[in-house]
C-alpha cells in the first residue's frame, strides 16, 4: 500500500543539520505514526512521503519554508520568569515551555532577569535547512474513528 490521504503511516527518522550533525532521531524507539493528509505532519515531510511504500528508505532536504519556516525577528516576547516551565534556574539558550492562548509552546530563553525573561517564540529549527533520513515502517488504511478524530491511534500515534 502506498502513502496517500487517509492512510496511517508509521516511520522512523533521523534529522540532520546542513553540516550533517544529528539534531533528532527516533532510532531505537517506536516509529512515529500520523494520519496522512490531515495536517498532522510537517507539510514538506508529508509531501516527501506521498507515494512511498512500506519498507522504503530515502532522504529528503527541506528548505526553511517547507520545514519550520523562516526565523522572525519580531518573535521575542517578555514574560514573567514564573511562567517558564522546565527548570528552576534559567540561563540564556535554555529551552522552556510556556502556556499561550494557542496552548503549550516551546521557547528559547534569550535573556533572563530576576523577574522577567525575554523568550524567542520561533521554533528552535526555524530558518534551518533540514535533512531527513526516513524509513517507512508501515502503511495502512485509517479507521473510521481515526478519520473522525483527525489523527492516528495506536502505537506511535495518539492515545486517548
Give your account of this protein's structure.
It is a single chain. This protein has 160 residues and is mainly beta. The chain has two domains: 86 residues, Chitinase A, domain 3 (Roll); 48 residues, Thrombin, subunit H. It has two helices and nine strands. The protein is globular. The model has no long low-confidence stretch (mean pLDDT 93).
Strand fraction: 35-45%
Q: For the record, give the distance between the C-alpha atoms at the N and C termini, rounded to a whole number.
A: 27 Å
Which sheet architecture does the biggest sheet show? Answer: 5 strands, antiparallel
Which residues sit in consecutive blocks of at least 5 with pLDDT less than 50? none
Number of helical segments? 2
Tally of separate domains: 2
Briefly note the structural class of the backbone: mainly beta
- pLDDT averaged over residues: 93
Which CATH architecture of the largest domain would you pick?
A: Roll
**Number of distinct beta strands:** 9
Helix-residue proportion:
under 10%
Quaternary state of this entry equals single chain
Question: At the third CATH level, what is the topology name of the largest domain?
Answer: Chitinase A, domain 3
- Could you tell me the radius of gyration in angstroms? 18 Å
Dominant shape: globular
Helix-strand pattern: EEEHEEEEEEH
Broad CATH class of the largest domain: Alpha Beta
Amino acid at each position: 500500500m502506498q502513502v496517500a490521504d487517509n492512510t496511517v503511516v508509521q516511520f522512523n527518522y533521523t534529522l540532520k543539520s546542513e553540516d550533517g550533525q544529528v539534531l533528532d532521531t527516533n532510532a531505537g524507539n517506536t516509529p512515529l505514526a500520523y494520519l496522512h493528509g490531515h495536517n498532522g505532519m510537517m507539510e514538506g515531510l508529508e509531501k516527501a512521503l506521498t507515494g512511498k511504500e512500506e519498507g522504503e528508505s530515502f532522504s529528503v532536504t527541506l528548505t526553511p519554508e517547507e520545514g519550520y519556516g523562516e526565523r522572525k525577528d519580531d518573535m521575542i516576547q517578555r514574560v514573567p520568569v514564573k511562567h517558564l516551565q522546565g527548570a528552576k534556574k534559567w540561563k540564556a539558550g535554555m529551552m522552556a515551555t510556556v502556556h499561550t492562548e494557542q496552548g503549550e509552546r516551546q521557547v528559547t530563553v534569550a535573556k533572563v532577569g530576576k523577574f522577567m525573561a525575554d523568550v524567542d517564540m520561533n521554533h528552535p529549527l526555524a530558518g534551518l535547512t533540514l535533512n531527513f533520513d526516513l524509513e517507512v515502517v508501515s502503511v495502512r488504511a485509517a479507521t473510521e474513528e481515526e478519520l473522525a478524530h483527525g489523527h492516528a491511534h495506536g502505537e506511535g500515534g495518539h492515545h486517548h
